[in-house]
Amino acid sequence: MRTFATAVWRGGIENGMGSLSMRSGAMVNHPFSAASRDRRGLRTNPEELLAAAHASSFSLTLAALLDDAGFVAARMDTSVEVTLAPASGSFTITALRLTLEARVPHLQDAAFQALASRAQAACPVARLCRVETSLEATLLG
């Protein structure tokens, strides 16, 4: 499978503005900027997009593992926190923190923890990042 997205940038880093588009059409000319790293608003930034990609990829990976084990999640809430920090004269993503809360009928916690750990190891985005990723998984009753 191959897919793509495009980014168009105009201006300098401080006051410049970009737009993102995805082949799927989920985002078309969606604004992004360096300033959005510090402020809230309708603009995104690469770190936020990475967090969304990681959260969705992990969720899909875990759903597939659950299916293989004969379980279906009633709901999974996955969030990823990306830490961007200065390192060696430039900014670097230094940590990813994945948090999962899930409702999976008839699944015991030990099996859930094992499947969540397998999903973390098998997640394509997590494997791409090669950054130490912590996982906190909670099975809700």
Key descriptive features of the protein:
141 residues, alpha+beta, GMP Synthetase, Chain A, domain 3, 2 domains, three-stranded antiparallel sheet, elongated
Describe the structure.
This protein has 141 residues and is an alpha+beta fold. 30% of the residues lie in helices and 35% in strands. Helix 1 crosses helix 2.
CATH topology of the largest domain: GMP Synthetase, Chain A, domain 3
Q: What level of helicity do the residues show?
A: 25-40%
Gross geometry: elongated
**CATH architectural name of the largest domain:** 2-Layer Sandwich
What's the CATH first level of the largest domain?
A: Alpha Beta
- State the fourth-level CATH superfamily of the largest domain: K homology (KH) domain
* Average residue-wise pLDDT: 90
Proportion of residues in extended strands: 25-35%
Along the chain, the helix and strand elements come as EEEHEEHHE
Number of strands: 6
**What is the CA-CA span between the terminal residues?**
37 Å
Q: State the helix count.
A: 3
Number of domains: 2
Task: Give a quick summary of the entry.
The protein has helices at residues 46-68, 109-122, 124-129; strands at 5-10, 17-22, 30-32, 75-87, 90-103, 133-139.
